[in-house]
Write the structure tokens for this entry.
Amino acid sequence: MKITDDSPPVLTALDRPNSYIGRSVPRPNLQRLTQGRGQYISDVTLPRMAHVAYVRSPHAHARIVKIDTEVAKKAPGVIAVVTGAELAKVMTPWVGVLTHLKGLKSTPQSPIAVERACWQGEAVCAVVARTRAKAEDACELVVVSYEELPAVTDPEIALDGKTPVIHASLGDNLCFERKLDVGAVDKAFAESHAVVETTFRFGRHTGVTNEPRAVVADWNEGDQRMTVYHGTQAPHMMQNLFAKHLGVAEHQVRVLTKDVGGSFGIKVHTYADEMATVALSKLLKRPVKFVADRIESFVTDIHARDHRIKAKIGVSRDGTITAFEIDDLTGIGPYSVYPRTSGIEANQIVNLTGGPYKCPNYRAQTRVVFQNKNVMCQYRAVGHPIAVAVTEGLVELAAAKIGMDPLELRRRNLIADDAYPTQSASGLKFELLSHHEALAHLDSMMNYAGLRAEQKKLREKAIYRGIGFASFIEVTNPSAAFYGVGGARITSMDGATVKLDAQGAIIVHTGVTEQGQGAEAVVAQCVASSFGVPMDKVRVITGDTDNTPYGGGTWASRAAGIGGEAAWQAGKALRANVLAVAASILQAKPDELDIRNGVVVDKAKGTERLPLEELARVAYFRPDTLPPDFQAELMVTRHYVPRAWPFAFTNGIQGSYLEVDTDTGFVKLLKHWCVEDCGTIINPQLVDEQIRGGVVQGIGAALFEHCLYDERGQLLNGNMADYLVPMAAEMPDIECGHVVSPTADSELGAKGAGEAGTAGAPGSVMNAINDALRPLGAEPLTDMPFTPDKILAALGKV
Amino acid sequence: MSDHALDISLTVNGERVQERVDARTTLVDFLREGLALTGSHVGCEHGVCGACTVRVNGEIVRGCLMLAVQCDGAKVETIEGLSDSGEVADLQAAFEQRNALQCGYCTPGMLAAAQDLLRRGGVPSRHEIREHLSGNYCRCTGYHAIVDAVEAVAQARAGAKK
């Protein structure tokens, strides 16, 4: 393993001439975006296009007694007013379950509520009009009579027998539960020198993509085809779902993604209002556009992280961690979200807690319950921020209790760097991780000893600074073990088709999608390197189910590790085909030739033999000059799916340095560090920027972001003035470092890097706050977000 | 309800525009839907996120907090104009080089806000850059790269003047 601070790693296996692997080349698609020439779904307009606005339930739980649409139908510009019952004739409902999450249950969900609304914001009627403004005007004229039903909002009492059952057909409010008991937990706690027990709470929050969810659905009655312009991360998954629930064949549905204004896991799910928009297009035989406005985003974009976890750690006198125990409870709204389910986050917490450590004793329980709030589902780093904050919070509380430095306690317990392959107590299989090397790198990068000295000196002046850490593991490059085995048509495979065009340039179609992470750049780098052309000769096309190879899209940090490998292999295969053509033209042997920098060269001497443009001219326009038994094949497709390991785990450690104002309770972030090991680094700049963006998203969870509901299930802060997100002024500079442990599952060796920042930041910030306040005798803060009022309460000032 | 429509006359990116607009139409909706200038984006619709930041009579404003009718007689500049005139070419290049954008949705507004700061001259500190951009929401980058890019352009422009 080799530490690489923003410098290209030496990668012998990939060390092709003019390789772009490990180089920070700019993304090819950026100029369009900086010039305001991007085309987001919210920019799309089509001939005959109409706009839909939805009448949404003001109640968390209510029976829909009557919907009077007569006045609305006569309003200016209105084309149609459609209820759930009417739309049910066009689209079937769905149920969000996976068979490998044993016992997980849910109930059919419709595009528009029929008979009953189960959360505040659920659509109960659609108004289609010539403009969005006219549609919204007419929404106010739809008269819906509701009979309000009791709202189940508090997960703590959802299962107590006295609380009403939301879906009578399910029998109770339990969606999913899982228990795990490994080793000898009770014995380990009994024999521990110290045991720390506390309760962690995580505030429900959401993705707040800058561009809200957007869809333009265009049913062409003449072609009998549905074209959906959709801001989605997973076009092939959506193609399947639109087709399935419209009752048409998949080939009758085309999904196009265009530019996507942020996703973060928000745009990888089935949303009732998007499904309804597609159904309305089929019903009305014309394009229909829906763009969520900001309050619609807050009440319908999936929420995440609403967990209460009772947690316990034991340590021996020498700092050895003896056992972990967690009891998780989470409320996920009235439905398990389709098709990925709302059980994955809780399941991940059970899998990941304690994951970096060699502790063999682990007991976990999770219960996932229904409630009348907006749905929860997978959002960037799914479960990781919670598992990491719980684990690392316990680790630092234990260190404080036995008077040991928190990094030293980690050194004594992290899985040794030479212990691989190995597995966690929960059964996660690790191919190769680098916890100790990452920790040592962080220690020196942040000058830990120097910071501790500074912290001590400033405390004498009543300035309270804190240093906190979070070691973490991250699930990336998922195989079929994630969703496929549970029966969902979500492929873990991805493909790339590459072709040599008639002027010697390379066109790539890839199944992975671009929402800003840099997937297009990474795919272009892989193809340019393995084929042998300059980057500016590669054009990448994504997000079109009619034209790209079948693929999973971009989620779970898979685009580079899976899509990149497919692109790498496709480039190699095309190189072999092109060299066969060159050998035929030059009457040479293919293995004596290579392609470098866009030119066919003599492999040994590097001298030019044939420009690609000339090769393409001969192959396309003068095939008559080639031998009669030779056919040039200038387009190839390769697919890749991880096989040897269910997931390519990555690891890393974050450090946070901050100052708490003990008079106001405000936290000032001074600096943040992250050392991460994502295997082969294809583009160091893109990896660092994924980490930085992820860290700030995690900081949002730690300090600001919280969907606040009252006891009747009303969201109290569904706007960006009241729901706070990280803005530039409050954020610190973030320094990134790397360790490189490639996966042997692919030739490229790349693992994912999209979620590491979000996974570790909340825990490290929490630990830093508690480190700052410890000398003041404050109760440890474990209830995110850590707003000033909570900090002042911990200090006994309010 | 849209009972009132008014005629307005203004210049947008140097082009004269005469249109009839509903009194309730915001400037950003007018730009996007009326003039098909989709470079200005709609994020929060209540003046917090800055995705709709444009320049009106030399000052940056929120396109979602200003009505189109308030721009009668005004000079409006959007990313399309700032880009085509070359005024922010160095900022755009720095953003591209530094990967100071990911999804790009905030970028037109972010560039307008950054140019507003840099037009004042001098080399602002990283803290001053962060303060000035604190009304522009970016969910992707974590801001560090944006601050780097703006700082680099400020230094280059100051150097070029010497």
User: Anything to note?
Assistant: The domain at 88-161 of chain B is CATH 1.10.150.120 (DNA polymerase; domain 1). The longest helix of chain B spans residues 144-161. The helical segments of chain B are 27-34, 79-84, 89-98, 107-118, 126-132, 144-161.
